[in-house]
DNA sequence: TCGTTAATTAACGGATGCGTTAAACATAGA
DNA sequence: TCTATGTTTAACGCATCCGTTAATTAACGA
């Protein structure tokens, strides 16, 4: 399961190696070998991670000769952030906490009234 | 593996049922049965999802009689967002795209110079 | 054409994730 | 104390994830 876009994105971000790859790509495009270099895992493993990132839309890839260059595509990060934004009110310092409290109380009251 | 905090958080968010539970909790605390109601899965399955969310720190739980109430804890969402913020420059409209372009070019040049 | 380099695919193994049903546990209340 | 209700734990099955090594594909370049 987990075919919806957000799930695919979050799942892709749930691996530290993949987040490391994204961090590297934030500094500029890189080949598979370059991306693999900081990690103590095999090249095929990196290749799979890249496929996951590509499937999530987090990177795009191009080939030039025998090198395959990856570049960061931030769009999915924007989507994921947009989803989290819905909860920003719950932690944002500028948020009126009283309002949240009242809404919680209200929800509980409604529940008991059933 | 995947023991680091961010991985646990992202993994918890990678399931649509769990995101649905969080959305429900944003409206106020709820019991396990209440949380399970919108979903076509068994109660034990919901119970496991809650355990995952709790382990990620996304919810806190309290018991009152035989009911176990869950409440949203937004802290991990703040952490996850903070991580993504590092990439905001790549998609934010207010960002000077030329700067990003120059940094990419620069990185590629450095690589070729090796 | 042959060898080298870059990367992927194939085949496998072990761990984890997510669902189920059945059983157990915890508390309230007659 | 017995029963009903809410929730968790146990035990299982199946799919997916993540890693490995070996083999394969693709392109360059002497």
Automatic annotation (TrEMBL), chains A, B:
InterPro entries: ArsR-like_HTH (IPR011991), HTH_ArsR_DNA-bd_dom (IPR001845), WH-like_DNA-bd_sf (IPR036388), WH_DNA-bd_sf (IPR036390). CDD domains: HTH_ARSR (cd00090). SMART domains: HTH_ARSR. It comes from the Bacteria. GO terms for molecular function: DNA-binding transcription factor activity. Pfam families: HTH_20. Gene3D superfamilies: Winged helix-like DNA-binding domain superfamily/Winged helix DNA-binding domain. Residues 1-92 form the HTH arsR-type domain. PANTHER family: SLL0088 PROTEIN (PTHR38600:SF2), TRANSCRIPTIONAL REGULATORY PROTEIN (PTHR38600). This is Transcriptional regulator, ArsR family. It comes from Micromonospora chaiyaphumensis.
């Amino acid at each position: 399961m987990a075919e919806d876009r957000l799930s695919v994105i979050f799942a892709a971000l749930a691996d530290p190696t993949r987040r490391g790859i994204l961090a590297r790509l934030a500094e500029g495009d890189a080949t598979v070998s370059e991306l693999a270099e900081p990690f103590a895992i095999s090249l095929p493993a990196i290749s799979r991670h890249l496929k996951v990132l590509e499937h999530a839309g987090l990177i795009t890839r191009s080939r030039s000769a025998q090198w395959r260059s990856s570049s960061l595509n931030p769009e999915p990060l924007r989507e994921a952030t947009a989803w989290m934004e819905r909860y920003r009110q719950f932690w944002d310092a500028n948020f009126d906490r009283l309002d949240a409290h009242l809404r919680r109380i209200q929800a509980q009251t409604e529940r008991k009234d059933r």
